[in-house]
Amino acid sequence: MAESCSACGACTKNCLFLQRYVKSPRKYFEQALSSTLDTEDRKSAFYCMVCGSCKAVCPKNLDPGRAFLAVRGDIVTDNGGAIPIESLKSVNNHQKLSFSALLRTLKRGRR
Ligand code: SF4
Ligand code: SF4
What we know:
The chain is built from 7 helices and no strands. By secondary structure, the chain is mostly helical. It has a domain at 10-83. The longest helix is centred in the middle third of the chain and has 15 residues, at 64-78. One iron/sulfur cluster binds next to α2, α5 and α6.
């Protein structure tokens, strides 16, 4: 992603997330790869909607949304399986509650 991005800005024009948190996908992923990205900047990957709009307009056919998703996976792995963002804590609770035996309404193997 970082090597192929020409920093043309086409994706940023259409995306409020990129405009507000990332500015340059090329720089973000260069720094993410070299582990020089500030921790809070790295976490901003969680605010990508993974909508695919960036991929649709990218002249290099890159998929920044997928790359942000991969960064999110790395962050969660580094954090022992939990999302390290206070405002997204409900996602961890949702995972716990939605799949708890107490609240589960579906039976395994049934549709
Ligand atoms: S997938 Fe993420 S980076 Fe791409 S346009 Fe959507 S919100 Fe922006
Ligand atoms: S549209 Fe593609 S090449 Fe242009 S800045 Fe975005 S990711 Fe890079």
